[in-house]
Prior knowledge:
Elements: H1 3-10, H2 19-34, H3 44-51, H4 55-61, H5 65-83, H6 92-109, H7 111-122, H8 126-146, H9 158-178, H10 189-203
Helix pairs in contact: 2-3, 2-5, 5-8, 6-9, 6-10, 7-8, 8-9, 9-10
DNA-binding region: 43-62
Keywords: DNA-binding, Transcription, Transcription regulation
Domain HTH tetR-type: 20-80
Amino acid sequence: MRAEDATERATPVRRRLSADDRRKQLVGIGLMMLRTQPIHELSIDAVAAEAGISRGLLFHYFPTKRDFYIAVMRAAGRRLLRVTKPDASLPPADQLRQMLLAFVAFVGRRRDSYISFVRGAAGGDVFVVEVYAETRAALTARVLLLLDQAAEDQPSSPVRLTVHAWLAYVEDLAIEWSGLPETERPYSAEELVDRSLAVLKSLS
C-alpha cells in the first residue's frame, strides 16, 4: 500500500453539516456551556471554537448574539419541559408528583444557570423574560391538565393565576433548598414535593 493511500485512509473525512444541523450543533454547545455559566457570560468565540468554525461563520447562522442567546434559552426551556414530562400511563396525581420531583432535581443539577435564568427574567431582560414566560406557561398548562382543569388555561382564570403563582413558590423553594449543604437540608426532595402539593391543595 502506498504511503499516501495509508495517510488518506487514516485521515477522517469531515462531514459538511447542513444549515439546520450546524444550528443544532451550535445551540447544543451553548447548552453544554450553560451548565456552568449564565447565558450572558457565554462566549461567542468559545462556542465557535468548540464547533471548529470562525466567529463570523457563527453569525451566518445566527445574525446577532441576541439571536443565538434566544435560541439557546429556548432550547433550555424545551429541555426543562422534556425532562419534567411525566409518565402518561400513571394516574394524574402520580404524574404531578413525578413532574415536581424531576423539576427539583433539574434545578439542583443546574442551580447556577437556572438562577441566572430566573434573575434575568426578574431583571426585565427582554429575551430572557420572553423565554421564561413561555416555559412557565407550558408548565402551568401541564399542571392544569393534570388537575383536570385544562379549560381554565386562560389568562384571566383565577385557577390559572393560582397555579402560575404556586409554580413560582415551588421554584423558589427548590432554589433555596438546593443551595443548602445536603446535611443541612431540613427535608428530602420527596418531602419538599409533598409540602408543595399540600400548599397547592390549600390554595384550591
